[in-house]
TrEMBL record:
Organism for this UniProt entry: Tritrichomonas foetus
InterPro entries: P-loop_NTPase
Record protein name field: Uncharacterized protein
């Protein structure tokens, strides 16, 4: 039996150390170097001391990490044959608020010229305004404050009964404001779709003649009989005639108190041709255009129009059929049952992979269905550049199981066949291949203007003579010809060096001559597109464009 003295002898202590496990030491900055193998000591302090000697560290070891870069603070948590990584950095204490890098300056050091200023008193936060939500809504609105005030006033006036309106002293003024606003909404919707004249002819004689010519075509016709197709050469004034026709048609509705029976739906298909393959964007286009027209005609619906538009757009984004918003549902009068039925058909066809045709038909027929729901007889479609919508949508992606592709132009022709319409073409040859409606009245921009021009434009080299007769009575061509005559007259009268034998040319004269040349080339190219007498052959056009300076005179 061993006595206590025997157990505490140096011989037994050495044998106990030999039984401790081995561990491998690495430098934390150089983990790829060979490890130093030592026996694990009894405490962390001794381990750090041995690591400093074995690894030949310049500074004393401070921390021990395992293979996962976790710090080790207890010696008993180290397993045999484990890899230990030694670091000389001081351990970071989370509770230590002092900066890692301390200043070497004395604590009471004051820099020369340093003045300690008193702390600035912070201003008290202003309390939130009670009408902050209303101001935020006004800021987020696409309409100006003046337009919002006008719309709120007219919305309140439109919601009154005829008895209440009769008791108002300002009823005539409000009625006039309402009619002017409705006319403005129609004009603005046309201009927002770029359906309007490229050249300003409204205040000139050409504009008066074009307007009178269109008034003669609308005279004596009922609204349902207004089914017009506008054709003509390229850039000859088809959009100009279309905008004039739509404006005159709406003024005719106002004079006959028929504005509550017809809804103007203007779309310029050339603007939206780029996303005709995106079904959702086509749906958004039809919804926003129809609701904008409905908002301008039914001013009492302005408070709920935003919620109604969000609900209609959510039909193609939410899998489940969304309920009608409470503000719309409880609005009186509102055809909620009919509108819910329209939304149900759109939502069901959107979520059926086999109903591509049904969804596109409901999309194109949306203006008709919504106008009937609100008591209109029919919408009036105003389409510009109709041949730009001749696009075939293949049944892919969401409607992969649908059978045949769908032609957008065929659907539109099917929808507008039972409604009044004003349709303008871009290219006649392509237009009549996709426009399948049989009953319509064709209007041509040619031979509309019968007035003779006062001047002729003469070019000496090459010899070309231009007159108003070459414009074939197209309002846009006549407007460009008159503008060209004015530019030639101004260039000749305001020339800085007027002698034709002088070689000197001022910068202003050169610039004016170049502007006249570019406008002349533009007019000649448009007139040459339908030139039957070969007045603008290829050789003359090449010589015109290659001449550095043209001698142009008015006769």
């Amino acid at each position: 039996m061993n006595s206590p003295r025997t157990l505490r002898s140096p011989r037994n202590a050495k044998s106990a150390d030999k039984q401790r496990p081995f561990v491998n030491l690495f430098k934390v900055d150089f983990p790829d170097k060979p490890a130093k193998k030592i026996r694990l000591p009894k405490d962390m302090k001794e381990l750090l001391k041995i690591a400093t000697e074995v690894l030949e560290l310049v500074r004393p070891a401070k921390q021990v990490f395992d293979a996962d870069n976790n710090p080790i603070t207890d010696i008993s948590s180290i397993e045999p044959k484990s890899n230990l990584y030694i670091s000389c950095a001081e351990p970071v204490h989370e509770d230590d608020d002092e900066p890692v890098y301390k200043s070497r300056l004395p604590r009471n050091y004051n820099a020369p010229g340093l003045i300690k200023l008193p702390p600035v008193k912070q201003p008290k936060a202003k309390p939130k305004r009670e009408d902050a939500v209303q101001h935020q809504a006004i800021a987020a609105s696409p309409y100006t404050v003046k337009e919002n005030l006008r719309d709120s006033l007219l919305s309140l006036y439109a919601s009154l009964t005829p008895e209440h309106k009769a008791q108002l002293n300002c009823a005539p003024a409000l009625q006039k404001l309402m009619l002017d606003t409705k006319q403005y909404v129609v004009e603005d919707s046309l201009l927002s779709q770029f359906i309007g004249p490229t050249s300003v002819i409204s205040g000139e004689e050409l504009g008066k003649q074009t307007t009178q010519w269109m008034m003669d075509r609308l005279k004596g016709l009922k609204p349902e009989e207004c089914r017009f197709v506008i054709t003509g050469p390229s850039q000859s004034g088809k959009s100009t005639l279309l905008s004039i026709a739509a404006s005159l048609f709406y003024q005719k509705l106002q004079l006959s108190n028929e504005t509550s029976n017809y809804l103007i739906i203007p779309i310029n298909w050339l603007l939206h041709q780029i996303f005709l393959d995106d079904i959702q964007k086509i749906y958004q286009l039809m919804v926003t255009t129809t609701l904008t027209a409905l908002r301008g005609e039914h001013l009492e619906l302005i408070p709920i129009m935003g919620a109604l538009q969000q609900w209609l757009l959510s039909l193609v984004t939410i899998p489940a059929f969304p309920p009608l918003p409470p503000s719309v549902l409880h609005f009186d009068p509102f055809p909620k049952d009919v509108v819910i039925g329209i939304g149900r058909r759109i939502h069901d066809s959107w979520n059926n992979k086999e109903k591509l045709y049904n969804f596109l038909f409901e999309t194109m027929n949306f203006p008709v269905a919504l106008s009937h729901a609100f008591g209109f007889k029919n919408p009036v479609f105003v389409f510009d550049h109709f041949d730009s919508c001749g696009y075939v949508i293949e049944p892919t992606d969401r409607f992969a199981e649908s059978g045949a592709p769908v032609n957008i132009s065929e659907l539109l022709c099917k929808v507008i066949d039972s409604c009044p319409f004003f349709v303008a073409a871009q290219d006649e040859s392509e237009f009549f291949t996709i426009f399948t409606i049989n009953e319509y009245k064709q209007l041509s921009t040619e031979r509309m203007i019968t007035a003779k021009g006062e001047h002729e434009i003469m070019i000496s080299n090459p010899q070309i003579t231009l007159s108003m007769d070459m414009c074939r009575g197209c309002p846009a061509y006549c407007a460009m010809y008159k503008r060209l005559c004015e530019m030639v007259k101004e260039a000749n009268e305001r020339a800085a060096v007027k002698s034709q034998f002088s070689r000197l040319r001022s910068v202003v004269d050169i610039t004016r001559n170049e502007m006249v040349k570019q406008e002349l080339l533009r007019v000649c190219l448009l007139l040459a597109a339908a030139d039957t007498e070969n007045l603008f052959d290829e050789e003359k056009m090449n010589r015109l464009s290659s001449m550095p300076e043209l001698q142009i005179k008015l006769r």
